[in-house]
């Protein structure tokens, strides 16, 4: 999928050039939109991601979710099987350390053997998204593998800067679309 690789490179390069002020401002708007989702009323278990390098910032959002009493889960990379594991996070300072690819991951002591079957909501990062919910991730296939196995019942929410909402991308059989995309300007239901 040469075309996917080229698009990924293009969008990640473009994203790396956005100013930190814009990233912070847009991230606050996206997080605020997320907290207004009506789906949160009935949600308990939320899987987020630890933002890095110009991704939509999630640390303030995760603190807010913990403060509001949600059960927060974060992924860790299982390189040997191209999949994500998961851990329940109580404290962002003590429960995380730098892991694979420089991402903040749950410390080994709290990692769970099995992924809970009853995740209510999964926040999904990406380089770009289409309005129909498909995404180009970072090329490892970890999220698609995880979502195809563990996200049947969960609402999948993609976080995306408006400028990386694109008309179309090549879609493969294993790609799993998200149900909602949140940008700094709008909330889009994809299905």
Automatic annotation (TrEMBL):
InterPro entries: FTHF_cligase (IPR002698), FTHF_cligase-like_sf (IPR024185), NagB/RpiA_transferase-like (IPR037171). Coiled coil: none annotated. Its cofactor is Mg(2+). Substrate binds at residue 55. Its EC number is 6.3.3.2. It comes from the Bacteria. One of its GO terms (molecular function) is 5-formyltetrahydrofolate cyclo-ligase activity. It catalyses: (6S)-5-formyl-5,6,7,8-tetrahydrofolate + ATP = (6R)-5,10-methenyltetrahydrofolate + ADP + phosphate. ATP binds at residues 4-8, 135-143. Keywords: ATP-binding, Ligase, Magnesium, Metal-binding, Nucleotide-binding. The keyword Magnesium applies. The keyword Amino-acid biosynthesis does not apply. GO terms for biological process: folic acid-containing compound biosynthetic process; tetrahydrofolate interconversion. It is an enzyme of class 6 (ligase). It holds the Pfam family 5-FTHF_cyc-lig. NCBIfam families: MTHFS_bact. Belongs to the 5-formyltetrahydrofolate cyclo-ligase family. This is 5-formyltetrahydrofolate cyclo-ligase. It comes from Halanaerobium saccharolyticum.
